[in-house]
Amino acid sequence: MYIMYFQYFMLLNLISFTFLSLFIIDPFILWFFLEMTNFMFICNMSISMNNKKMIFFYFIIQILASFLIIYSMITNTLIMKNEFIKFSIIVSLMLKLSIPPFHFWSPLIAKFLPWNLLLIMLTIQKIIPFYMLSNFSIYPMMINIIIILSSIIPPFMMFNLINMKMIMTYSSIHQSSWMILLIYMKSIIWIKYFLFYSIITFSLFYTFNKLKMSMTQYYLLPQFHKFKYINLLLILNLASLPPLSFFYMKWFSIYLFIFNSNLLIILIIMMFSSLIMLFIYTNLLINSLFMFKFSSKMIKFNLLNNPKFTPFMIFLTLLFSPILFII
Prior knowledge:
By secondary structure, the chain is mainly α. It has one domain (1-325). Helix content is 73%, strand content 0%. Mean pLDDT is 80; it is low at 291-305. Keywords: Electron transport, Membrane, Mitochondrion, Mitochondrion inner membrane, NAD, Respiratory chain, Translocase, Transmembrane, Transmembrane helix, Transport, Ubiquinone.
C-alpha cells in the first residue's frame, strides 16, 4: 500500500517538475529539474521492475549525459562562448533523447519496462530535453545528419520485430526527427506535434496495458473484434494516414518545410521513411485482420464490457487532436 502511494507521489512530482520547467529559461535550473525527473523515474523503475541490471544501465546512461551537460555549461560560463561546448551539450541532449547514433539504450530498456513507465519514458521524459534543445541554435550540417539517421535507422531496425515495446520505441525515435526539424526551424509547432503524438501514444499504450500485450499478439484476440478495429485506427493514425488527426499535423509540418529550400532533400528522405513506417504498421496489423483465427484464455479483460472505453478512444484519436490543431 505504502509502495503504491510512494509511486504515485513520485509520478506526480515528475509531471509537476516537467511542466514547471517550461516556464524556466535559466539552463542550470533546467538541468536541475531534468535530474529531478530522472531521479523520480528511476525510483518508479526500481518499484515496478525486477531487472535491476536495466535500471543500473539506464542510470549510467543518464549520469553520463548529465555530467556532459553540466560540465559543458560550467565551462561555457567560465570560458566565454565556445562552439565545441555548444556541440557537446547538443550531443548530450541527443543521448538523453535516444536520437541516433545514440539510440542503442532505449530499445534494450523498453523490453523490460511496464507500459505505463514506457509511456513516461517516450513522452514526459523527453519534454525537458526538447525544450533545452529549442534554446540552442543547431548547426545545419549537424541537424541534417541527426534527422537523416533518425529517419532511416528506426524503420530498418523495426523489420521482423515482434516485441511491441521495441516497435513503439523505434517509432518514437522516428517521430522525434520531425520534432527536431521543427525545433531547428524555431517553430512553436513542435509542441503541438509532441502533444498529438503523446495523445495517440497514450491511447495505444492504454489498450496494450489492459490486454497485457508485449508481443504482436493480435492473432490471439479474435473475440475482441471491435477492439481490433479501434487499435487499427490508432496505429494507422500514428502512421499519419488521412483523414485521421495526425495526418493533419504532419501535413502542416510539411507545409512549413516546403518554404525552406534548404530542407527539401531532408523532407524527401523523411517522407520516404514515413512510407516505410506505414508499410511496417500495415504489416503489423495484417495478421490480425485476415490470417489467424486462434483464441487465448490468457486474456481476461474484455474491452467490450466497458461501454465507455470505445467512445473515449475515438474521442482522443479523432476529435480531441483536431481541436488541438485548430488551437
